[in-house]
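Q: My hope is that you can spare some time for a protein that puzzles me. Underneath my words sits a plain record pairing an amino acid chain with its backbone structure tokens. Those tokens are not coordinates but codes from a learned vocabulary of shapes. Thank you; the sequence and its tokens follow:
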Amino acid sequence: MAKFKIQKGLSDADMMKGFVEEETFETALLKDDAKATNKVVGKPKEQKTEDDFYQEFLTERMKTEIGKLLLAIKMDYFKDDIKDFSIQVKRNGNNIVLETAPKKVK
């Protein structure tokens, strides 16, 4: 029997280089199943809601800046011992204004 030296440190692709698998009944069925599942599995397109459309105008940077400013306002209210506050979004001409006010306790 001839000795065959196995090289170490090869990747799977390197080890299988030059190997051609013979077509058998089993491999033919596996190929047919793979083709059938690829056709059926396709991802459905996501339906965009009206809210998703409106949020496209806000970039991640803008969301981050608005979040930082709202956190600063929340901390200011917290320092004044106000736990809850409300935010109202208003349009003033071509400007958007966020108004904050402490919530009234009933």
User: Anything to note?
Assistant: The longest helix spans residues 60-79. The two ends are 93 Å apart (CA to CA). Helices lie at 12-15, 25-40, 50-55, 60-79. The chain has four helices and two strands.
